[in-house]
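TODO from last week: model Bifunctional NAD(P)H-hydrate repair enzyme.
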Amino acid sequence: MKLFSKAQIYEGDKLTVERLNISSTQLMEQAGTQLFNWIHTRMQGAQVPIHVFCGIGNNGGNGLVMARHLITHGYHVITYIVNYSDKRSKDFLEHYDQIKNVTKKWPVMLSCEDDFSEIQIGGDDIIVDAVFGIGFNRAAKPWVAQLFQKFKASKAFTLAIDIPSGLYTDEAITDDKAVVYANYTLSFQSPKLVFFLPETAKFIGQWEVIDVGIDRQYLKETKTEVELIGKHEVLPLYKPREKFSHKGNFGHVLILGGSYGKIGAVQLASKAALSAGAGLVTAYVPECGYHSLQTAIPEVMVITDASEKEISNIEFDLEPSVIGIGVGLGTSEATVKTFEAFLKQNSVPLVIDADGLNILAQHQDLLQYLPKGTVLTPHPKELERLIGAWKGDFEKLEKVKTFSKTHEVIVLIKGANSITVDQDKLYINTTGNPGMATGGVGDVLTGVISGLIVQGYSPLAATIFAVYLHGKSADISLEDYGYQSLIASHIIETLGEAYIDLFKQPEQPKVEEAPKK
């Protein structure tokens, strides 16, 4: 799914008005009507107090249209105008005039804290937040922030229109108290990037996209910087297998890592690569890992370093199609030296994780030796070591994009919504759950990415697909283990089910047969 920027949404509105030969006021009517339809379908006339707070711009106009339809359908509606400026949008004013024609009580005007201090909002009421929209570009006035805090304190169900008021679409916030905490957000035409970032996702609640009628051709043809990755996006990436294929068709993965006490990381990555579909997997480990690997995963071949406890001299007589390196590797002086020597002579595609990333962070001159399209998979602290600290999520993304372009690498920012960064393009994953916050899960992902690259997927496609499968497998395992008991091995066990799920059709509702007479 494309995630349109603020500028693209504005351009889409403009083109829609021109191509459909309608006014911007009519387009706003369409949007507000869709909002009404959404809430009417769910409430079916229930007489719950609905407090609609409208700003004085276009998002406020959307709220006025919805409020008008709710009133004419007999709902218990109280409409408020949050009068935060002297300026009014033209479309807001037109719909403000219309709502006055359907209600005996005009909207309540709020211009300071005293105006809303006596407003009573019950915990069972509904608040509709249509104060600011995507055009919000300056800090909310203190009294408006106090109003938002009143929303939160009321415990009422809060429905945000397009985006919770107080959030910017393209920069970090500075004051949590000046933002609406929504239980549900109805986003126009596409979700917003801020819905998926660590610092801002908490304001969104659940979200849903509302089609407000922006021109279809424009939506189809417009390229976006950000894409949301779900089943429909990864299905076209899937490579089916030919009947007469054999293991040689699906490549040879080398998982290079491990140190004394951390051989398990190599076991997880190796088994994950096999379960993702690699034809052959070899593990390169210190001598101390030989017996455990041969016993734990008989399908994996093992090469050992001359050193008992660490990787000290990388030498192998095979031709892997991809090398996953860094899991459990350690950062001893001998390991760092052999890692450096390895990078300088290697030309095989790489997936680098864990201590491989930590070594690169400490020796950034080695970045020049990475093959084009190398995949780096840092968690937040590893990322900070690589690119330096950041002041907010947007600065972080800009720094990662610059890093990706400078070194021609793919960077996977691991997290609740893992983001794959390929130069200026972002791919946000939608699978996974908090049960994945446990040791070894990243090692599994390194194996899955390596196992897909080796089958002929491009590094970018492999990363996007692997992150989806990895998260989906965890979601499937969650049903049996719950958040607390989910471990990395469970994700490997259900990778096959994650593949199968790609081709499952949604369950259709059962139709009850009429009783026979």
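Done. The longest helix spans residues 459-485.
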